[in-house]
Amino acid sequence: MKTNPQAFEKEICAILKRVAPQITEQTLREIKNGKSITDLKIIDSLNLVALLCELESVFGVKLEPEDVNIENFETLPKIIKVLRTKIQ
Question: Residue 16 in contact with residue 23, Cβ under 8 Å?
Answer without folding.
Answer: yes
